Amino acid sequence: MRFTKMHGIGNDYIYIDCMESMPDRLPELAREMSDRHMGVGGDGIVLICPSEIADFRMRMFNSDGSEARMCGNASRCIAKYVHDHNLSHNNPINLETLSGIKVLSLNMAGDNVKSVTVDMGEPSLNKDDIPVVNDDGERCMIEKSVVTPYGEYNVTAVSMGNPHGVIFVDNLEDIPFENLGPYMENHPIWRDRANIEFAQVLSSGVIKMRVWERGTGETLACGTGACATLVASAITGRTGRMATLKLRGGDLDIEWMADGHVMMTGAATEVFQGVYRRQC
Ligand SMILES: N[C@H](CCC[C@H](N)C(=O)O)C(=O)O
């Protein structure tokens, strides 16, 4: 099985071109290929498939085998892949996802893809959309206090087509990330677990963040998580509607437009291609 290893500012996935055929037992394949010792190694797998309603269709599986409804960093890498591998010369490219069609704009330098801007669509703060277990009759969950064995934290729930819990802290160095991340990912307030973002606002236009992803654990970057963090920051008055999100793997420029759509711009990198011998 041929594959291409790519990353979006360090959020590394294994990309499989499924324009002709689709492997079976995808959760098992995701777990096996993502293993960093006995497989290829990655945060998960991403399938590039034909679509009847867009240019391409994305399916994305976390390293634990769970399928996600949207992946921001992978969307940018798909745009670069289909351009570089001559699958399409459209610009923008329409990508079908489980969270609707996303529009991917290639920012070119000559024939090289310098960066990609993704229209991530509109966020939702409605607890039913995230989904959050609704135990207090509130429509949204904004700065809700959650008591944990590691201290009390205020959580803001945002959907970018997938669930996010955003926690603002004074200093990212001072949090018990390895314990708090999985605890919050699996907290019973989430019906389907959640991606957890820890964010430190550095200025009105710069936010530093670390992310514990649902189904993968810590990643060096999370595109949907960066968008969710910007939205949470704007609605809680910490920043405006545009900021640079500084993640461990690099920066993303995010803007929450007046029309409600969130635009995310960042790099996409192809690292190597290979042939995988399936074990399962
Ligand atoms: N772990 C996420 C999917 C990957 C999202 C992230 N890698 C991104 O770039 O948006 C979830 O289960 O919803």
From TrEMBL:
Its EC number is 5.1.1.7. The active site is at C71, C222. The record marks H164, E213 as: Could be important to modulate the pK values of the two catalytic cysteine residues. It is found in: Cytoplasm. Pfam families: DAP_epimerase (PF01678). Keywords: Amino-acid biosynthesis, Cytoplasm, Isomerase, Lysine biosynthesis. GO terms for biological process: lysine biosynthetic process via diaminopimelate. PROSITE patterns: DAP_EPIMERASE. Substrate binds at N11, N62, G72, N73, N162, N195, E213, R214, G223, T224. Gene3D superfamilies: Diaminopimelate Epimerase, Chain A, domain 1. One of its GO terms (molecular function) is diaminopimelate epimerase activity. GO terms for cellular component: cytosol. It catalyses: (2S,6S)-2,6-diaminopimelate = meso-2,6-diaminopimelate. Pathway: Amino-acid biosynthesis; L-lysine biosynthesis via DAP pathway; DL-2,6-diaminopimelate from LL-2,6-diaminopimelate: step 1/1. It is an enzyme of class 5 (isomerase). Homodimer. Belongs to the diaminopimelate epimerase family. PANTHER family: DIAMINOPIMELATE EPIMERASE, DIAMINOPIMELATE EPIMERASE, CHLOROPLASTIC. Catalyzes the stereoinversion of LL-2,6-diaminopimelate (L,L-DAP) to meso-diaminopimelate (meso-DAP), a precursor of L-lysine and an essential component of the bacterial peptidoglycan. This is Diaminopimelate epimerase. It comes from Duncaniella freteri.
